[in-house]
Amino acid sequence: MPSSPRIVFSARALVARRLPFARRRESYADVEVARDEIRALPPAVEPLILRVRAAGFSLEDRARVEGDWFCDVTGQEPVKLPPPRWEYEGGEASAWVQGKTWLAAWETCTRPDWMMHGAASAGVARKSVARVACVAARSVLGLVPAGEDRPRALVERAEAWTQGRVETQAVIDLAQALPRAYGTPEAGYLAQAIVQVFEACRSAAYIAYPSLGPDNFGSYAAYAFDHAAMARAHARCGPRAKDMRVCWRQTMPEFAHVVRRELPTVEVFRALARSTHADT
Protein backbone atom coordinates (compact mmCIF):
# COMPACT_ATOMS: atom_id res chain seq x y z
CA MET A 1 0.00 0.00 0.00
CA PRO A 2 1.49 3.38 -0.98
CA SER A 3 2.64 5.52 1.91
CA SER A 4 0.85 8.78 2.67
CA PRO A 5 2.56 11.81 1.11
CA ARG A 6 4.86 13.40 3.63
CA ILE A 7 7.62 16.02 3.48
CA VAL A 8 9.89 16.69 6.44
CA PHE A 9 12.58 19.30 7.04
CA SER A 10 15.78 19.14 9.06
CA ALA A 11 18.56 21.70 9.29
CA ARG A 12 22.09 22.30 10.52
CA ALA A 13 24.64 25.08 10.52
CA LEU A 14 26.96 24.88 7.54
CA VAL A 15 30.20 25.77 9.30
CA ALA A 16 30.18 23.05 11.98
CA ARG A 17 31.65 20.06 10.18
CA ARG A 18 29.58 16.88 10.52
CA LEU A 19 27.12 18.49 12.90
CA PRO A 20 23.95 16.35 13.02
CA PHE A 21 20.76 17.65 11.44
CA ALA A 22 17.94 18.79 13.73
CA ARG A 23 14.48 17.71 12.61
CA ARG A 24 11.69 20.28 12.46
CA ARG A 25 8.38 19.29 14.00
CA GLU A 26 6.22 20.31 11.07
CA SER A 27 5.56 18.04 8.10
CA TYR A 28 3.77 18.72 4.83
CA ALA A 29 1.62 16.70 2.45
CA ASP A 30 1.80 19.02 -0.55
CA VAL A 31 4.89 19.86 -2.62
CA GLU A 32 3.81 23.43 -3.41
CA VAL A 33 3.04 24.14 0.23
CA ALA A 34 6.45 22.82 1.21
CA ARG A 35 8.18 24.94 -1.46
CA ASP A 36 6.26 28.01 -0.32
CA GLU A 37 7.38 27.32 3.23
CA ILE A 38 11.01 27.09 2.10
CA ARG A 39 10.75 30.36 0.16
CA ALA A 40 9.14 32.07 3.16
CA LEU A 41 11.87 31.11 5.60
CA PRO A 42 13.31 34.18 7.37
CA PRO A 43 16.97 35.08 6.71
CA ALA A 44 19.25 32.64 8.50
CA VAL A 45 21.23 33.87 11.49
CA GLU A 46 24.13 31.87 10.05
CA PRO A 47 24.46 29.92 6.79
CA LEU A 48 22.36 26.76 6.99
CA ILE A 49 21.64 23.61 5.05
CA LEU A 50 17.95 22.71 5.00
CA ARG A 51 17.56 19.02 4.21
CA VAL A 52 14.19 18.06 2.74
CA ARG A 53 12.96 14.48 2.53
CA ALA A 54 9.80 13.45 0.70
CA ALA A 55 7.92 10.16 0.54
CA GLY A 56 4.72 9.05 -1.18
CA PHE A 57 5.12 11.34 -4.21
CA SER A 58 5.93 10.75 -7.85
CA LEU A 59 9.60 10.97 -8.80
CA GLU A 60 8.89 14.24 -10.59
CA ASP A 61 7.29 15.82 -7.52
CA ARG A 62 10.01 14.53 -5.21
CA ALA A 63 12.68 16.04 -7.44
CA ARG A 64 11.05 19.47 -7.10
CA VAL A 65 11.50 19.62 -3.35
CA GLU A 66 13.74 16.85 -2.02
CA GLY A 67 17.41 17.54 -1.41
CA ASP A 68 19.68 20.03 0.33
CA TRP A 69 18.77 23.72 0.21
CA PHE A 70 21.36 26.40 0.99
CA CYS A 71 20.00 29.19 3.22
CA ASP A 72 22.28 32.19 3.58
CA VAL A 73 22.35 35.19 5.90
CA THR A 74 21.92 37.55 2.95
CA GLY A 75 18.16 37.07 2.85
CA GLN A 76 18.24 35.65 -0.67
CA GLU A 77 15.79 32.89 -1.43
CA PRO A 78 17.10 29.42 -0.49
CA VAL A 79 18.70 27.53 -3.36
CA LYS A 80 18.23 23.82 -3.95
CA LEU A 81 21.70 22.44 -4.54
CA PRO A 82 22.43 19.96 -7.31
CA PRO A 83 24.22 16.69 -6.61
CA PRO A 84 28.00 16.98 -6.92
CA ARG A 85 29.52 16.07 -10.25
CA TRP A 86 33.24 15.87 -9.64
CA GLU A 87 34.66 14.97 -13.02
CA TYR A 88 38.38 15.13 -12.31
CA GLU A 89 40.64 12.95 -14.43
CA GLY A 90 40.06 9.23 -14.65
CA GLY A 91 36.49 8.97 -13.40
CA GLU A 92 37.46 7.84 -9.88
CA ALA A 93 36.17 11.08 -8.36
CA SER A 94 32.88 10.82 -10.23
CA ALA A 95 32.37 7.26 -9.02
CA TRP A 96 33.20 8.15 -5.41
CA VAL A 97 30.81 11.11 -5.28
CA GLN A 98 27.90 9.19 -6.77
CA GLY A 99 24.91 9.25 -4.42
CA LYS A 100 26.45 11.80 -2.03
CA THR A 101 25.24 15.30 -1.30
CA TRP A 102 27.61 18.22 -1.80
CA LEU A 103 27.83 18.59 1.96
CA ALA A 104 28.74 14.95 2.57
CA ALA A 105 31.27 14.97 -0.25
CA TRP A 106 32.99 18.15 0.91
CA GLU A 107 33.11 17.14 4.55
CA THR A 108 34.33 13.56 4.11
CA CYS A 109 36.58 13.66 1.05
CA THR A 110 40.22 12.73 1.60
CA ARG A 111 41.37 13.75 -1.89
CA PRO A 112 42.31 17.43 -2.07
CA ASP A 113 42.75 17.25 -5.84
CA TRP A 114 39.12 16.20 -6.29
CA MET A 115 37.97 18.87 -3.87
CA MET A 116 39.86 21.68 -5.60
CA HIS A 117 38.67 20.70 -9.06
CA GLY A 118 35.13 20.36 -7.72
CA ALA A 119 35.31 23.78 -6.05
CA ALA A 120 36.49 25.45 -9.25
CA SER A 121 33.75 23.73 -11.24
CA ALA A 122 31.20 24.91 -8.66
CA GLY A 123 32.16 28.52 -9.36
CA VAL A 124 34.70 29.37 -6.64
CA ALA A 125 36.69 32.39 -7.84
CA ARG A 126 39.96 31.82 -9.66
CA LYS A 127 42.02 33.81 -7.15
CA SER A 128 40.52 31.93 -4.22
CA VAL A 129 41.43 28.64 -5.90
CA ALA A 130 44.94 29.92 -6.59
CA ARG A 131 45.40 31.13 -3.04
CA VAL A 132 44.66 27.68 -1.65
CA ALA A 133 46.90 26.01 -4.24
CA CYS A 134 49.71 28.32 -3.13
CA VAL A 135 49.25 27.10 0.45
CA ALA A 136 49.87 23.55 -0.76
CA ALA A 137 52.96 24.57 -2.71
CA ARG A 138 54.34 26.68 0.14
CA SER A 139 53.94 23.80 2.59
CA VAL A 140 56.66 21.79 0.84
CA LEU A 141 59.15 24.58 0.05
CA GLY A 142 61.25 23.42 2.99
CA LEU A 143 62.30 20.41 0.92
CA VAL A 144 64.19 22.65 -1.52
CA PRO A 145 67.91 23.13 -0.71
CA ALA A 146 69.03 26.44 0.76
CA GLY A 147 70.01 28.90 -1.95
CA GLU A 148 67.45 27.62 -4.48
CA ASP A 149 64.93 30.43 -4.19
CA ARG A 150 63.12 30.25 -7.53
CA PRO A 151 60.18 28.08 -6.40
CA ARG A 152 59.63 30.30 -3.37
CA ALA A 153 59.80 33.43 -5.51
CA LEU A 154 57.16 32.00 -7.84
CA VAL A 155 54.80 31.12 -4.99
CA GLU A 156 55.24 34.59 -3.50
CA ARG A 157 54.50 36.17 -6.87
CA ALA A 158 51.36 34.06 -7.29
CA GLU A 159 50.24 34.93 -3.76
CA ALA A 160 50.75 38.61 -4.51
CA TRP A 161 48.59 38.21 -7.61
CA THR A 162 45.75 36.67 -5.58
CA GLN A 163 45.91 39.78 -3.37
CA GLY A 164 45.82 42.15 -6.35
CA ARG A 165 49.37 43.42 -5.78
CA VAL A 166 50.88 42.30 -9.10
CA GLU A 167 49.57 41.89 -12.64
CA THR A 168 48.73 38.54 -14.18
CA GLN A 169 51.55 38.72 -16.70
CA ALA A 170 54.12 39.03 -13.93
CA VAL A 171 53.05 35.64 -12.59
CA ILE A 172 53.01 34.02 -16.01
CA ASP A 173 56.46 35.35 -16.88
CA LEU A 174 58.00 33.97 -13.72
CA ALA A 175 56.22 30.63 -14.10
CA GLN A 176 57.55 30.26 -17.62
CA ALA A 177 61.06 31.13 -16.42
CA LEU A 178 61.06 28.43 -13.74
CA PRO A 179 63.16 25.58 -15.14
CA ARG A 180 62.00 22.02 -15.17
CA ALA A 181 63.62 20.10 -12.34
CA TYR A 182 64.55 16.61 -13.39
CA GLY A 183 65.23 13.71 -11.08
CA THR A 184 65.70 9.99 -11.47
CA PRO A 185 65.32 7.22 -8.93
CA GLU A 186 69.10 6.90 -8.94
CA ALA A 187 69.40 10.52 -7.84
CA GLY A 188 67.68 9.73 -4.55
CA TYR A 189 64.28 10.33 -3.05
CA LEU A 190 65.04 13.88 -1.95
CA ALA A 191 65.83 14.78 -5.57
CA GLN A 192 62.48 13.30 -6.56
CA ALA A 193 60.80 15.37 -3.86
CA ILE A 194 62.40 18.55 -5.20
CA VAL A 195 61.04 17.79 -8.68
CA GLN A 196 57.56 17.57 -7.20
CA VAL A 197 58.00 20.85 -5.30
CA PHE A 198 58.90 22.66 -8.53
CA GLU A 199 55.82 21.25 -10.23
CA ALA A 200 53.54 22.13 -7.31
CA CYS A 201 54.70 25.75 -7.48
CA ARG A 202 54.37 25.89 -11.26
CA SER A 203 50.86 24.42 -11.16
CA ALA A 204 49.70 26.93 -8.55
CA ALA A 205 51.05 29.80 -10.65
CA TYR A 206 49.49 28.55 -13.91
CA ILE A 207 46.03 29.14 -12.42
CA ALA A 208 46.63 32.82 -13.25
CA TYR A 209 46.43 32.17 -17.01
CA PRO A 210 43.34 34.21 -18.00
CA SER A 211 42.47 31.95 -20.94
CA LEU A 212 41.78 28.99 -18.64
CA GLY A 213 38.20 28.18 -17.74
CA PRO A 214 37.16 26.68 -14.38
CA ASP A 215 37.71 23.10 -15.50
CA ASN A 216 41.28 23.89 -16.56
CA PHE A 217 42.37 26.12 -13.72
CA GLY A 218 40.70 23.67 -11.36
CA SER A 219 42.92 20.97 -12.83
CA TYR A 220 46.02 23.06 -12.14
CA ALA A 221 44.88 23.51 -8.55
CA ALA A 222 44.45 19.75 -8.32
CA TYR A 223 47.94 19.25 -9.77
CA ALA A 224 49.41 21.59 -7.17
CA PHE A 225 48.04 19.37 -4.42
CA ASP A 226 48.99 16.17 -6.23
CA HIS A 227 52.60 17.31 -6.58
CA ALA A 228 52.83 18.70 -3.05
CA ALA A 229 51.55 15.42 -1.63
CA MET A 230 53.99 13.45 -3.76
CA ALA A 231 56.87 15.68 -2.63
CA ARG A 232 55.98 14.98 0.99
CA ALA A 233 55.59 11.26 0.24
CA HIS A 234 59.08 11.06 -1.29
CA ALA A 235 60.64 12.95 1.60
CA ARG A 236 58.77 10.97 4.25
CA CYS A 237 58.83 7.43 2.91
CA GLY A 238 62.07 7.48 0.96
CA PRO A 239 63.64 4.08 0.33
CA ARG A 240 61.18 2.37 2.71
CA ALA A 241 58.35 2.72 0.22
CA LYS A 242 57.73 -0.31 -1.98
CA ASP A 243 55.12 1.68 -3.90
CA MET A 244 55.35 5.47 -3.72
CA ARG A 245 51.76 5.82 -4.88
CA VAL A 246 50.64 4.08 -1.70
CA CYS A 247 52.59 6.57 0.39
CA TRP A 248 51.17 9.40 -1.72
CA ARG A 249 47.63 8.25 -1.03
CA GLN A 250 48.38 8.07 2.69
CA THR A 251 49.60 11.67 2.55
CA MET A 252 46.60 13.07 0.69
CA PRO A 253 44.19 13.28 3.69
CA GLU A 254 46.56 15.76 5.35
CA PHE A 255 46.14 18.05 2.36
CA ALA A 256 42.36 17.54 2.31
CA HIS A 257 42.32 19.13 5.77
CA VAL A 258 44.31 22.03 4.30
CA VAL A 259 41.62 22.57 1.66
CA ARG A 260 38.83 22.62 4.23
CA ARG A 261 40.82 24.97 6.47
CA GLU A 262 41.81 27.42 3.74
CA LEU A 263 38.66 27.34 1.60
CA PRO A 264 35.69 27.89 3.91
CA THR A 265 32.70 25.68 3.25
CA VAL A 266 30.44 28.72 3.09
CA GLU A 267 32.55 30.22 0.27
CA VAL A 268 32.18 27.01 -1.74
CA PHE A 269 28.44 26.80 -1.14
CA ARG A 270 27.84 30.46 -1.97
CA ALA A 271 29.63 29.94 -5.27
CA LEU A 272 27.63 26.77 -5.89
CA ALA A 273 24.37 28.58 -5.09
CA ARG A 274 25.24 31.43 -7.49
CA SER A 275 26.07 29.04 -10.32
CA THR A 276 22.96 26.95 -9.63
CA HIS A 277 20.75 30.05 -9.64
CA ALA A 278 22.36 31.22 -12.89
CA ASP A 279 21.58 27.88 -14.54
CA THR A 280 17.86 27.94 -13.63
Can you offer a commentary on this structure?
The chain is of the alpha+beta class. It folds into 2 domains: 6-80, no CATH class; 92-278, no CATH class. Helix content is 54%, strand content 11%. It contains 12 helices and 5 strands. A 5-stranded antiparallel β-sheet has the order 2-1-3-4-5. Helix 5 (112-122) runs antiparallel to helix 10 and helix 10 packs across helix 11 (244-262). It is elongated.
Computed over alpha carbons, the radius of gyration is: 22 Å
Uncertain regions spanning at least 5 consecutive residues: none
How are the strands ordered across the major sheet? Answer: 2-1-3-4-5
CA-to-CA gap between the ends?
A: 36 Å
Give the overall shape, derived from the CA principal axes: elongated
- What is the share of helical residues? 40-55%
Query: How many strand elements?
Result: 5
Order of helices and strands: EEHEHEEHHHHHHHHHH
Based on secondary structure, the structural category is alpha+beta
Mean pLDDT comes to 93
> What kind of sheet is the major sheet?
5 strands, antiparallel
| DSSP summary: helix tally | 12
Strand content: 5-15%
- Count of domain modules: 2
